[in-house]
Write a structure and sequence with these properties.
Helices cover 37% and strands 16% of the residues. The chain is built from 9 helices and 10 strands. The protein has a 5-stranded parallel β-sheet. Strands 6-7-8 form a 3-stranded parallel β-sheet, with helices on one face. The chain has a two-stranded antiparallel sheet with strand order 1-2. By secondary structure, the chain is of the alpha/beta class. α1 runs parallel beside α9, α4 packs parallel to α5 and α5 packs parallel to α6.
């Protein structure tokens, strides 16, 4: 693939980031992560055990932090204070780990981000020394404000979390990509490999997903498909597609110099 991309102070070869929830067990989680080729795995601190319960199986035993970069997230948080407390707990559980994913939700029905609370939490976390990757709406102005606060990656939704609807507003996404000076990673709404490819063809630096893999009939195969979709989309973006031409047919083979012509 193309050259690695950098988040905070680390370079990664895989541009696919994968969640660890909703699988039938930790063994399936590990198999899917391996098939995806992901190096960064996101973990819902309030839902997945990484040491909070010493008497229950821990994800750390299946996905050792020595092999993967953990991205603790604030899934299920509905206020800035709640999100900040959750990530401070994650930092303690993961021995001072700084890279985190911030999401502050607006309501339990749509899981759409509450942007005023997200901005507030981002400011607090950046000042507290965290490297903040932030889930946000596809509003280019909000994205710019989060970057100005100091977030190390902007993660606009493609569509609602868990919806599988794909990229519903490519124009806004393109505006964010064109103005951002930090990585832009599509987060939420991807349903299948073609959605991931489209995100990368638009110029995104990466794609984060969970449900699209975990809820597939064959999660391991879907994880491989997503890996290939991200790679294909990135290669197509770098190659530069042919221009679109309305009613301007151009045959693939030249008509001049034809045999017998």
């Amino acid at each position: 693939m193309s050259k690695p991309f950098r988040i905070a102070d680390t370079e990664y070869h895989s541009r696919l980031l994968v969640g660890t929830g909703k699988y039938k067990d930790f063994a399936e989680t590990r198999a899917a992560i391996d098939a995806s080729g992901a190096q960064i795995v996101t973990v819902a601190i309030r839902r997945v055990n990484i040491g909070q319960d010493a008497n229950a199986p821990s994800l750390l035993d299946y996905l050792p932090p020595s092999q993967f970069t953990y991205l603790p997230n604030t899934a299920g948080c509905y206020s800035a204070d709640e999100a900040v407390r959750t990530l401070r707990l994650a930092r303690e559980l993961l021995d001072g780990h700084k890279l985190v994913k911030l999401e502050v939700l607006g309501d339990a029905h749509t899981l759409f981000p509450n942007m005023s609370e997200t901005l507030k939490a981002a400011e607090t976390l950046v000042k507290d020394g965290f490297d903040v990757m932030v889930y946000c709406s596809d509003d280019p102005i909000m994205a710019r404000q989060l970057e100005e606060i100091g977030c190390c990656a902007i993660m606009p939704l493609a569509s609602l979390i868990g919806s599988g609807m794909g990229i519903l507003n490519p124009w806004n996404l393109k505006l964010i990509i064109e103005s951002a000076k930090v990585p832009v990673i599509v987060d939420a709404g991807v349903g299948t490999a073609s959605d991931a490819a489209i995100a990368m063809e638009l110029g995104c630096d990466g794609v984060l997903m969970n449900t699209a893999i975990a809820a597939a009939q064959d999660p391991i195969r879907m994880a491989r498909a997503m890996k290939l979709g991200v790679e294909a989309g990135r290669e197509a973006f770098l190659a530069g597609r042919m221009p679109r031409k309305l009613y301007s047919a151009s045959p693939s083979s030249p008509t001049t110099g034809m045999i017998g012509g």
